[in-house]
Amino acid sequence: MSTGGDIAPKVRSILDAARERAASRADTGGERVAVDARSLTGAFEAAEADGRVPLIAEVKPTSPTTDGERTDDPVELAESMVAGGAAALSVLTEPEHFGGSTDALERIRAAVDVPVLRKDFVVRESQLDAVESDVLLLIVRFLDEEGTDDLADLLAAARERGFQVLVETHTAEEVERALAAGAEIVGVNNRDLAKLEVDLGTFEDVAPEAPENVTLIAESGIATTNDALAMREAGADALLVGSAIMDAAGGGDVEANTRRLVTAESDATAETAADAETETHQ
């Protein structure tokens, strides 16, 4: 199935670049990577037990939909996110459009003790061996494309190497495809790859399609504590947040931005309790 006409030009450019990198790696060969992965679901459970919103904070220097660029040391950014309470990290390794690198991921994974997701556009099995990570991203929409490997085959190949796999979807039909391929961790991206527009209602609409035994992650467009609470109320087991934490244009405080989101539920509970106490004394 080809979705060529349904992808925005900026995203088309990213996909084309991913194919070129995949072909280059296949031509040169390379060492086969196997991973002893840190548990992503275990990290989520630990965050819940600690009263934190399970959050994957993303080290994303820039993107086609973001103004500005963060030039800070990626390891320092990652450590700040963990200090702010992130349960896991996502690290961009796509170089041309997001300023990422496999070197940054290697350095970050060596410096932190939380699971690290490799955020890239993997379309061929040869790309699995580019770098060790605890979790690998596979995007259903991209794997609908001609000239890419089959989702189920890639998922199986990644697991055979020890990776956990986050399968990203955007529609109910894509969730069905992810589940049919054997996905156990499913992301719902609120960003429409056709228009690059964000609608948090996407997760609310698509989440009911996932069974309870699937770990469900809300991705993109989560900027405020109210957004975080809305996604959790809609059924998100965890959130993946990049731009609101990195704040590339403003150079914001990454640790504070992370903490604001991971404490959203506890802060809301405290506020509700305070309001109730005030009412009883009126």
Keywords:
TIM Barrel; Indglycph_syn_Halo_TrpC; phosphoribosylanthranilate isomerase activity; Indole-3-glycerol phosphate synthase; about 280 residues; two-stranded antiparallel ribbon; aromatic amino acid biosynthesis; alpha/beta; about 45% helix; single chain
Notes on the protein architecture:
This protein is an alpha/beta fold and 282 residues long. It has one domain (4-280): Aldolase class I (TIM Barrel, Alpha-Beta Barrel), CATH 3.20.20.70. Helix content is 44%, strand content 15%. It is built from 13 helices and 10 strands. It has an 8-stranded parallel barrel, surrounded by 7 helices. A two-stranded antiparallel sheet has the order 7-8. Strand 9, helix 10 (225-233) and strand 10 form a beta-alpha-beta unit. The longest helix has 20 residues, at 9-28. The radius of gyration is 19 Å and the shape is globular. The chain starts with 8 loop residues before the first helix and ends with a helix. 44% of the residues are buried.
Topology:
Blueprint: H1 9-28, H2 40-49, E1 55-59, H3 74-83, E2 88-92, H4 95-98, H5 102-111, E3 116-119, E4 135-139, H6 140-143, H7 151-160, E5 164-169, H8 172-181, E6 185-189, E7 191-192, E8 197-198, H9 201-206, E9 215-219, H10 225-233, E10 238-241, H11 243-246, H12 254-262, H13 264-280
Helix pairs in contact: 3-5, 3-12
GO molecular function, one term: indole-3-glycerol-phosphate synthase activity
EC number: 4.1.1.48
Domain Indole-3-glycerol phosphate synthase: 7-260
Short description:
The protein contains 13 helices and ten strands. The strands form two sheets. The protein has an eight-stranded parallel barrel with strand order 1-2-3-4-5-6-9-10, surrounded by seven helices. Strands 7-8 form a two-stranded antiparallel ribbon. One of its GO terms (biological process) is L-tryptophan biosynthetic process.
